[in-house]
Amino acid sequence: MSKLLTVFGATGNQGGSVIASVLANPKLSSEYNIRGITRDPSKPAGQKLAERGVELVKADLSDKESVRKATEGSFAVFGVTNYWEFLDKNIEISQGRNIADACKANGVSLFIWSTICHAGRMTNGKLSHLPHFDSKAEVADYVRANDIPATFLNAGCFMENFPDTLQKSEEGDSLNANLHPDTKIPLFAAAEDTGKFVAGILLNHPTLLGKDIYAATGWYTPTDIVKAIEKVSGRKTTFNELPDKTFQSFLPEAIGEELMETFMLVRDYAYYGPGGDKILEESLKYVDGKPTTLEEFMQKAIKA
Description:
This protein has 304 residues and is α/β, with parallel strands linked by helices. The chain has 14 helices and 13 strands. A 7-stranded parallel beta sheet has the order 3-2-1-4-5-6-11, with helices on both faces. The N and C termini lie far apart (41 Å).
């Protein structure tokens, strides 16, 4: 009898990637039926999933009871939230806890939580404007405190974020940020590769229960990024290092400080913190398939 995998954010980058990877893996696709959770199953993205045999269920992450019902009968649950939808730390924590409580109530054997480090704790309060980090980490704390069987997927920086940030001119393109040219950034293609890491967690259950898996192809610098873009686009592309506050001044006021501190976390604390390189190296042993390289990603993103 097949087990049930419930995927939140089924039509988003991370959830959609999980579904695609599980369907593409012969062992997992025969072992699991997939239930995709979305707010509107009637939309085209949802209907495409339905055509591939995914059971679509409507649920609202802020509605505790609807989340509980959506996870009934699940062996495994992939949980992800979107801080940027509300720009509210408390809402994201509440939504994450709703998924965690549903897993507990329904006896889920494996909760895969999409999370990241607690920036405030890791930097001893020096970076205090990163609620989209801290909220996910505080949900992970809640999961551990309540003894919910879980594996924690720590997403790296999205490759998707870089092509659209280029400043274009007749002379060429530039990437501008408060990073050093040689700052090492853990990058991964979220829409393509989240599922590869999650598939690896499913294939290695229960070995990875309680563990953190870091999701990134590898460490790339701003210099690497502009070289990859230039190679694909054929346009001269440069990187310009900006002071923190100068970078912030170019950003929308509502998110400027948060994005500035995000790059400070990468630059000054290696994003994952001490030992992150070793944990990433170990995590890559469990990936189902080959992660997308920066150049492979840019070949699709720049030409698209």
